[in-house]
Amino acid sequence: MTTTTATSERLQSTFKRFVEVGRVVLVNDGPSAGNLAVIVEIIDHNRALIDGPTTSVPRQSFPYRNLILTPYTIASLPRGAGNGAVKKAFEKAGVLEKWQSSGWAKKLAARKQRKNASDFDRFQIQLAKKSRREEVRKAYVKEKKASA
């Protein structure tokens, strides 16, 4: 084994989400927080130009510290692509459908729903949990008596 092969094997990174043109990001700050956008152009090591035509994120320069990289990319997107091209590629790749079916998006939706719940909603949840606990307890006791 040559030294170049040995060093390349050692340098294999487990990191997979890179800042790149076509990377789908979750906006984490500002009025578009919680929406998906696509990196259209890399400005410098602190900012990128993002666009989210189907998710109502306007084309703007955005700092990386306020973006969360998702595992989704749009491979065929050229650098500096226009709004129409980004929209077409976004819809063709089916990114929004993939995102909505992911566990991450479902968790965020559940968190938002809990945050917006009223007192009555929380009360109903409390009663449902209480009745579920009671059903589980009864089934456990019945099973324990049957096995004994």
Descriptive report:
GO terms for molecular function: RNA binding; structural constituent of ribosome. One of its GO terms (cellular component) is cytosolic large ribosomal subunit. It holds the Pfam family Ribosomal_L14e. Keywords: Cytoplasm, Ribonucleoprotein, Ribosomal protein. This protein has 148 residues and is an alpha+beta fold. Helices cover 45% and strands 22% of the residues. The protein has five helices and five strands; from the N terminus they run αβββββαααα. It has a five-stranded antiparallel sheet with strand order 4-3-2-1-5. A hairpin with an 8-residue loop joins β1 (23-27) and β2 (36-42). The radius of gyration is 23 Å and the shape is elongated. The N and C termini lie far apart (64 Å). The model has no long low-confidence stretch (mean pLDDT 90).
Helicity level:
40-55%
Distance between the termini: 64 Å
Content-based structural category = alpha+beta
**Sheet with the most strands?**
5 strands, antiparallel
User: How much of the polypeptide forms β-strand, as a percent range?
Assistant: 15-25%
Given the structure, what is the number of helices? Answer: 5
Our Rg estimate from Cα atoms comes to 23 Å
Order of helices and strands: HEEEEEHHHH
Q: Report the principal-axis shape.
A: elongated
Task: Give the strand order, joined by hyphens, for the main sheet.
Answer: 4-3-2-1-5
Q: In terms of per-residue confidence, which ranges show pLDDT below 50 for 5 or more consecutive residues?
A: none
The overall pLDDT, averaged over residues, is: 90
Number of strands: 5
